[in-house]
Amino acid sequence: MPTGKVKFFDADKGFGFVSTDDPHEGGDVFVPASALPHGVTTLKGGSRIEFSIVEGRRGKQAMAVKVLDPAPSVATNRKVRDRKDPEAMIVIVEDVIKLLDAVSSSLRRGHYPDRAHGNKVAAVLRAVAADLEL
Known about the structure:
Layout: E1 3-10, E2 15-20, E3 28-32, E4 48-56, E5 59-69, H1 74-77, H2 86-108, H3 115-132
Antiparallel strand pairs: 1-2, 1-4, 2-3, 4-5
């Protein structure tokens, strides 16, 4: 059975997407809430799952989902004393604002950032989110 990592899952909308570990599967797979195990109502981004794939009306769709590893939780992996000093976070947040302003200006001109730049921005946002979340 294929395995992958949950990209996101919206319990309110009743679906999400998983990126497969197998490069031959070709991209993301749609995960409907109906494919979740009994008693499971949502999947956390980053969770590892096993699933079967069927061809749906709109492409590949996961069925018979089994949660292998829940997503690592920042709260369980870090302690309060590991947090950055608030003064240091002020500088980081201000830099992120400048970074996002540049992305916003580019989008206003009708241009998305190229893949490499977009991935770097996303990595920075995830890192800052991890520092803020506890």
